[in-house]
Structures are given as structure tokens and as C-alpha cells.
Structures
1.
Amino acid sequence: MKVRDLMSSEVTTLGRNDELSLADDVMRLGRIRHMPVIDESGRVVGVVSQRDLFGGALFKAMGFGDRQLRQVLKTLPVKEVMSTGVETVSPDHDARAAAKLMLERKIGCLPVVEDGKLVGILTESDFVAVVANSPRS
């Protein structure tokens, strides 16, 4: 099985200079846990995950209200919290090897890149879906 057999090809992305409030809104509304960050040429330069946004919980614990938290998120660009040095795979990469990579590196997603451009994303949920949809023996 190849990565292309499991990946999602519709990927919501961010730019490095997008506000964190945008990332927060899209992730909440779309129930998305990982968003690749791309540069002007469409190359993957980072990933923002829900974990990267959990700092908002810290602000709330410190007594910030929703409005104040929103203001903080509007002042921070994505590049301030995104993970860089992102592992990527090609659509033709072996799915089992991709799963091992995710386990070894303790990462929840792998952007799928072909000819330097983002073409999909492979997440833990994609592997869960395979198991959930497998016939029982």
C-alpha cells in the first residue's frame, strides 16, 4: 500500500505570515489537527498543530478572557509557533514505512510532496480509518 492510497488530497494550508487566529478558527471549525505552512512558491516550510495552539489554554489559565486571547492570536504570525524541519513523503512512499516514521519521530502527520509541491497530507486518522474499515477476520 502506498501513501497515495491513504492520504487526503484536499489540504487546508497556512502562510507563514497568517495570523494565529486564522489557524485557530480553521482548526476549530474544520476539526483539523494539523495544517501545513507553505511559502509563496507552494513549498512546505512548516506545520502548525493543535498542540502549537494550546498556548491559548495557558493564557486562559492566567485569567485572559476569550476576547483577550483572540487579540493575542491576532498579533502572532504562524511562523512564530510552527514546527519547522518538517518530515515529508512522496505519494509513492510505502505506507507502512510512513507509519513507522510517524511513530519513531512522534509526529501526527506527514505532508505529502511531489516535485516540491504539497499534494496531500497523511495523518494518524488516515491509518485509523484503514483499520476501522477493514473486514474482521
2.
Amino acid sequence: MVHRSQGLLLVEAHVPGAGDGAVNRNGRAYVEAAIRNRAFSLVYQPIVNLDSGTVAGVEALCRFDDGRAPDVWFRRCEALGLASAIDLAIIDLAFQDLDRLPPGYLALNLSAASLSTPGRVHDALRPFLPRRPIVLELTEHAVVDDYEVVCDELRTLRDAGVMLAVDDAGAGYATFQHVLRLRPDVIKLDRSITRGIDADRARRALVSALVIFGAEVRASVVAEGIETESELTAVRSTGVGCGQGYWLGRPSPLPLPPVEYRPTSDVPMTHALDPVPWARTDDHAALIEADPTLAVVAHGLLHSLATAGRALDLLCSHEGEVPVEEFRALVRIMRMQIRHVTGTLEDLVRGMPHEALRALDELLLPEGTA
């Protein structure tokens, strides 16, 4: 992932492709020469479908020949008004790699400046469009001066089949401003949210909420920065469909090594919205036994959840009639919530006499059935 923000770093070095002589690496001549002479290369990181283990797409990431970090380069390009120039140079270089990429979409990082000139990005992507799905990633850190202009350009690109991802969601300037204003097709969660998610209920709750939000606005969710198996398990338990990170695949030059991740058939739900620590203790069961009103309410909710589960099974029988990613996201969210609430409600009815439970069941049966 490439971050773009303000800042400078002054170092002396040689201009890429120029003669001898030390020059300022932050100078315009140096940066323009690097762009003109393509003094950088691309590596690609897989974005993996967490349900199937297949590669959904790859993200193109830039590595500069002088060894400086990409974020340093992009900060300087922005300061010099060359953000669009480096974007277009990267698009040009990625096009040369197109035939060697694995199946799936190609994600390209883009500055807001590139979307501010009508037609510029569309013309650069024109050769890609018949051959490969394209996702443009706009970082949440980027400041958009005129959303109306950017939205107009995105409308043209979307009409041509290009998709938009908002990158670094949850960690950038004016948090979620891009998500709300640009209505992306993909929301990429910042690594600061993914890091340590296996040990942090608040992060898991946040991601679960974002998955539900994504389904509401018809955006898929990708979790970046997955670096351990336990983080991956926790991410899957929240309903996120795709992931990216060192645990799934490192950025690599072409040809990419195969992705070794193979999903388990079932995801433990212990990492989702866990019941509070006291929810399954004998003391709690004793409390419920002393409060029959609460137990009756819980029993009714359990019956409703069972009905929702049957409805979900019916939805599954029509899987081919719903867009695959949207269908899977809805099923994951519903099943997770049903299992969580069911487990909690079962605690509430624990300890009730069997005769009382049978009487409650009879009350919930439709009239005329027995």
C-alpha cells in the first residue's frame, strides 16, 4: 500500500539517467528525470478471496531504483505537482506486465490530482479495458479539493467498466469522507485496523459493522495488512470477503509465486462479537432461573432466530440468482449474527424446567398445528 501526504526528505544523489554530479533528490529535475526514464519497477501483491483461497486480483506497487521508500517519492511528486505524471507512468509500466499477471483484476493506486483532469486517466486505461478488470485505489489520506469534478470523472470511468476502491479506510484524513462522497465499489480497511484484530474485540466489532455498511452501499470489503494466521481467522469471522497481507502473499516481481492459503470449511466464531465473559457461567444460569420473564423473552427470540436461519437456507438454495460476492457477504453476516445471538439467548433459557420449555414451544406454534 502506498501512502501519500505532505513532507520532504533532503538527500544528495545522482539524477536517474543523467551524467555525473550530485544533485538534490527532491529537486524537480531529479524527479522529472526519474519519471521520464522509468527509474522504478513494479511488484504485485495478491488480493485473496478468503472463502475460496483464489486470487481475486493483484495490486501494483512501485519500487524506486534509488532505494527510497515509495511514500517519500509520492510525497515529493505531490509537492512538485507531478503526482499525475508518476501515476500515468506507473499505469504505462503496468500495461507492459498485463499478459503475465494471474487472472483477476488489477488494482492501481491513483492520486486525486489524476482524477481532476477530465479524460486523462480514461485515455491511459483505454488499452487495459478490453483485457482486464481495473480497480483504481484512491487513498483515504488524499485530499480531494473538488468532489464534484472527481465524481464526474469517476462516472465516465465507471461507464467504461472501471471500479473504484477507497484505500486506508478508517485511518485517513476526514475519516470515511471518500467512502461517503465517492461511493466506492471496494472499501480497503487500513492495516491499523487489521493489526491485532485477533486480540481486540473493539476492532472486530468495527470491522463487522463496516462489512454490514459495505453490504448496504453495495461495496465489498478487503482487509489489508493480514500478517498472522490468527489475524486471518479473526478477519474471516467478521464476514470480510477478501484479504491482503504478508500472511497471504508478499509483494513480488513477476511471475508471482502461487498463493498457499487454503481456507478451512468452517470459521470459528469465537473471534466475532463474543458474548461478555460472564455469559456462560453457572452463576448466570442461576440468575436466569430466578427471572422467568427474561427467560420467556429469550425463548421467543430464539424461535425467531430459528426462522431466520430457515430463511437463510432458502436464500442459499437460490445462490446462482444473486451476484456471488454480494450473496456470500450477506450469508456470512447473517450466519455470524444468528450464531452470536443464539449462543447468548441459550444462556438465558438454561436452567428452565423442560415442562416450561415445552409449554413455550406450544405457544409459538402457528395456530392449527400441533
